[in-house]
Amino acid sequence: MSNKINSMAIGAALVAGLGGGYLLFGGSEAPPNSGIENQAATERKPLFYRNAMIPTVTSPIPAKDSMGMDYIPVYAEDETDSNAPAGTVKIDPTTVQNIGVRTEIAIEGPLSRAVRAVGRVDFDETLLTRIYPKINGWIGTLMVDKTGAQVKKGDVLLSIYSPQLVASQEEYLLALSNRKTLANSPLKDIRHGAESLVKSARLRLELLDMPEHQIKELERSGEISRETHIHSPFDGVVIKMGVLAGQYVMPNTQLYQLADLSKVWVYAEVYEFELPWIKENDTAQITVEGVPGREFHGHISYIYPYLDRKTRTAKVRLEFDNSDGALLPAMFASVTLKSARSEPTVLIPSQAVVRSGTRKQVFVVREPGKFEPRKVVIGISSEGQTQILEGVAAGEEVVISAQFLIDSESSLREATAKMMAGADESKKETTETEATEAKMGEMKMPKNDVPNEMKTDDQPLKSEGEQP
Q1: CATH number of the structural domain 89-107+344-413
Q2: Cα–Cα distance, 234 to 80 (Å, whole number)
Q3: In tens digits, what is the pLDDT along the chain, a chain of 468 residues?
Q4: 226, 169 contact by CB (below 8 A)
Q5: Considering all CA atoms of the chain, what is the largest pairwise distance in Å, rounded to the nearest integer?
Q6: What are phi and psi of 284, to 5 degrees?
Q7: How far apart are CA 72 and CA 63, in angstroms?
Q8: What's the pTM value of the predicted model, to 2 decimals?
Q9: Exposed/middle/buried for 430, CB within 10 Å: 0-12, 13-18, 19+?
């Protein structure tokens, strides 16, 4: 009895469910646009099918790839409008957000760059001096006898005995005595000759580098100096000694080599691709490990007109003030060259440029979700910015991320457009060929082949057996 009651309850529930479904779905009218959508879906035919993973792999019929994924249909509506440049891509906002498309406005402004290099501190070659004697003789006393010694301008470096210089002093004393004797001569020529002799004897001492103070002492005392002093020509450092006490020297013997360290040079090596950024008189900045925490400021004094064949670098000479002697020759330095700012130009982020072989292009946003490939001519790049010489104007919006995905889609669209254009051209050529052949067929019809219904009474029909 209970089983029968349960069966009746289940049947009643089924009837109620069917009735409710009819009221909810069967009794309602179809949406007014469903017919239009179904018709559009029916009329919308794909041009071809493409691989989901490799967009360049296509098929004219539905297919599957090696992983079992269906090829994606490509419809004519998916292509951009005919007025847009080839390769223009249109992407819906959701996809744009999902693939992470970011854009930035092209700006107009100056471009500068800091060129970094490694340098070496060296002597200023214009402040180096080598001291040679102008007489033969023997070294007497060495007042400066150590390499690296600091000297001041006018300091006595050494004394030298020279018979030649002693004889020249004697001649000068005789000339002075002769001038004194003939000073009261009534003959002008004699007085003038005595004066000329004094001048030539004094000039001889000066040319042999006898110091001025010793010449004056000779004039005052009238006593010949056995040894002559050699003085330092400027403040500097002895970087090389060439003689010892008692040594015999000649005019070709180097006595000392002195360097003035109030200014120093720094040689830096700049790579070839960075040469357009630097020029003479640009500011330079260095730091050295020997003076931590301090920056030295100078300028580029010369760029050597050749490259090193092995390192492909150019030598650049920098000048720095070193009045306090902090920079020592042979120090290594970290160099920063501040290039002069260029003229205002169109700048875009460097990551916006898509390089494909010799072609360089960017994607410009024509409208939301619509990206146009634009071939560009680029200039120099610096600190994340690239100079655009041609192709993009200031104020245009360019894509700076996910552009490689857009580029892949753009290349596919462009190829598709070319395929469709080729098909249309082929169809047009076929139509023209058929028309031409039909016309040629009409032209080949014989002129005397006139249909029977077009013959007149003046041209009676001939029977089969009748002879012409």
Answers
A1: 2.40.420.20
A2: 80
A3: 444 444 555 454 444 444 444 333 344 444 444 444 444 444 567 777 877 777 668 888 888 888 888 887 776 544 445 566 666 777 777 777 777 888 899 998 887 788 999 999 999 999 999 999 999 999 999 999 999 999 999 999 999 999 999 999 999 999 999 888 888 888 888 888 999 999 999 999 999 999 999 999 999 999 999 999 999 998 999 999 999 999 999 999 999 999 999 999 999 999 998 888 888 999 999 999 999 999 999 999 999 999 999 999 999 999 999 999 999 999 999 999 987 666 788 998 988 898 877 788 888 988 888 888 888 998 888 778 888 999 899 999 999 887 677 777 666 666 555 555 555 555 555 555 555 555 555 555 554 544 444 444 444 444 444 443
A4: no
A5: 179
A6: -135, 150
A7: 9
A8: 0.56
A9: exposed
Say if residue 105 is exposed, middle or buried (CB neighbours under 10 Å; 0-12, 13-18, 19+): exposed
As beta bridge partners, residue 163 has none
Q: Each residue of 45-69: b (16+ CB within 10 Å) or e?
A: ebbbbbbeeebeebeeeeeeeeeee
Token pair listed for 357:
């072989």
Q: CATH topology of 89-107+344-413 equal to that of 114-124+261-338?
A: no
Q: Which CATH class is domain 114-124+261-338?
A: mainly beta
Residue type, 71: Y
d(CA 272, CA 309): 11
Instruction: List C-alpha distances in Å: 231 to 17, 127, 227, 255.
Output: 124, 16, 13, 11
Q: Cα separation of 122 and 331, whole Å?
A: 8
- Residue reference for tokens 């957000």: 97
Domain-by-domain residue ranges, the chain? Answer: 43-78, 89-107+344-413, 114-124+261-338, 133-254
